[in-house]
Amino acid sequence: MEEADMIDATTYCFGNCRFTPARQSLLCGDIPIRLGSRAMDLLHALVRQPGQVVDKSELLKAAWPNLFVDESNLKVNIAALRRALETSGIDVPCIATVPGRGYRFVAPLTVVRPREVAFPASIKEIDGALPPSKPLVGRADALAAIVEALQQTRLLTVVGPAGVGKTSIAVAAARAIANGGHQAVCFVDLAAIEKGQFVALAISRALGIESHPIDEVDGLVGALRGRNQLLVLDNCEHVLAAVAGIADQLNHALHGLNIIATSREPLRCRFETVHRLPPLQYPPADAVLDAGSAMGFSAVELLVRRAEAHGYRLEDADVPSITSLSRRLDGIALAIELAAPQLKESGPAGLLQMLERDFEALASRGDGMDRHKTLTATLNWSYRLLSEDEARLLRHLSVFGGTFALDDVIDAFGHLAHEQDLTAWLEALAAKSMVSVNYTGRRRRYRLLDSTRTFANKRLVAQGEQQAAMIAYGRFILALFERAEEEWTWRPREDWVALYGGWSTDLRRMIDWAYGSDGQAELGVRLTVAALPFWVEFSTMAESGARVEKALSVLDGLPGDHLVLRMKLVAAHGWNLCYRYPFGDELEATWKRGFELALEAGSVEHCLRTKIGLAMVQTAMGFHQRVFETIADLRRFMASVDDYSAAPNADRELFTCEFYQGNIKSGHAGLERLAREHATFGNRGQTSRFQIDRFVNFRNHLSLSTWVVGKHRRALEVAKEALNAALTLDHDLSCAHSLALAATPIALLCGRVDLAQERATMLIERLKSRQIDTWPPFARFHQAAIDAARGEREAVERLRHAIDAIRECNFLVHLPLRYVMLSHAALAHDQIEVARQSIDEGVHYCRERGDRWCDAEFLHLQGLVCWRDGDTVSAMRRLQDAIDLGRESGALAFALRAATSRVKLATEIGDPAQPLAQLKDISDRCDSSGSTDIAAAHAVLARAHARTA
User: Fold this and answer.
1) What global pTM score does this model have?
2) CB of 571 within 8 A of CB of 609?
3) Cβ(334)–Cβ(364) under 8 Å?
């Protein structure tokens, strides 16, 4: 009996197969091969006599004892046995036929008997005790969910990427259950178990079960029957098939047993519950936090708490670097644990700088498993478990800078394999937690954690695959942004931003790589051109300027014509120069060159864009007559091509220049008509062509003309409509345009100082975060005007400096009004000579450029200065001239101011009756409220009425 038991307990090894007759187990690697019991018995009979002929009668007796069967049954089962071995990957023949006699087992065979079984030394060290652990941070909800789930399920697998904290949460859950006295707990770390055949033995060892090495599972079932036990199987991913089989059997046979498994992918057992453990939470990149609020994010809290043990203390000044660190570490608990001890020595900023290069700085200085001593070792553990195809795809995925969809992978790397294979490999990587998965608008998207991306990219380089991968990826990004360029003209902004806004990092990286890689300069140029809408949409004009200039420089050195590329780049260069000081001949010349290239290329669209661009900068520089000539040329061109799509923008330039030249009534009427015709905002095609949304642009100019004609309440409403539309669009160019040219100055003109301050602050804040150089002098002027209105005498000097800066920049739009505002501020602070000088400079500029819309107000100011000088006769004459000109031209706001001043002067020196009648007539033609000017006029009229009552 003892000999029979010994034979039955033997394991026969051939190829990569292990055959254990006592368990009716045939494994190829860790994968069971399914065979019928007769085939198993035949294999057993053959391997017991390797190399020897086993005759048919002996084989029939072994498989069908005490039964008479036809010899054909033997042939069928031998054939089935051969097929099973062949399909399992054994590349050598195992069973040979000896004609007329029987069969012989011919494969090289190793026989391992029970007392010869050698298993890893690590199994001997297993004692089943829970390992020591630190207090969890940020996992209270996950811990509660796991403990609660174990009341409903008997098999729960904690799944997540490398280092996320699966072991910690499993140990904490087991400890909570043990402390509750509900179950005995046994912990089994399978990390050091290299082969699935030792899993059951490791579990037996942990449980203290003494069973025969071959009968582990049966021994486990027998020993655990009737016990209330929690079994924690840690690090299962590398022996997944063996763990799944054992867990499934134990779960089915033992109703008092609960199992918590940790793995980078599910076991895929029956009745398994999967708990996916996400990384710890970290702040978004745009969050503004102090130390207290930063600690509300679990990744930051863990980093700080662990660093405190090494002498670090969080201060508000460190918060930006600490939050950036938590993002760089992706909320991965192991990475945070490894980084924390270095915070005190390196400082948050220094450590962040090191980690921006790579993650080699993250190494444990204490005890622990080798694969947990560095983040790289942990990732390498997971990487080795991948198939060759999965590993190759992971390496290529490292070129993605952000999230991506399956279609993106296929479009970028479809040359690697068929779509079905790429899909299968990507899903396998996701299942193994090498790729993170999230859903955006019900669309499945993938992402590599920063640490995984860095790890995989190094292996991409080591395998010599980087150049080809980057070229393929560059072509993908080019196709993506060429599609974005085409869709920019019609797709709603929210959709466009959602589709393409997230690719900014990849775009920039690919452009830089293309210029730095031999033979890829043209790709860099084409990427820059395709991305032109991106620069405009996100208002990164400084970056756009640098990249466009670089592309133009590189284009000069490329063979071939590239006319269309050059045309688009020159037009973009023109727009970029509009956001850079000073304005001058180069700006006009660039737009003219752009029009010539567009004509040569036959691009009607770019002909329209460049002509409108030229007219806009001529308006900004105060060359109104040039604008009329440019618009006339544009109208002739539109007629020749029968394309009038740019006509509203051309009309806006025309009406604005009419207004500036003193034709206030006709200019204002034209702007009103345009606003009525463009009553909705968000037209993507017009924003993409001319930088500013038409709804916003037209109302920005209309608001000023509305104020000048005396409709102050309506002017405030129009400016607010434009600003709200720009804010709704979240388009920074439109927002800055609205704040600088309409919302803030209209509030100032209406005497709404607090509202002006709110809008001036909004402009300043936007200028801090965006690369828009056009508006800072305007912002400084507005702030000085606000301060002067609040009584700060020195603010008058700042107003003068701001005007000097604006003139130096040569962005002269509304310059006469700025001289007017400076003069009023100087008079309010008794700086008569400053007022006199600013009036003279303003009048001189207006005569030189033909800017006549503020003439009535300059007359009013001259009258006020005469009054201060004691020359009341000249003062009365100047004020009357201002009233007459204002009424004649339609500048009722200026007429109202002059009439109010004239009544005050007339009251001081004599009979105010006639001036009062004038004021009453003008006041009745203006809005009844909305500004301090209107309120002042009403107050004067009320006092006069009170005196006569």
Assistant:
1) 0.71
2) yes
3) no
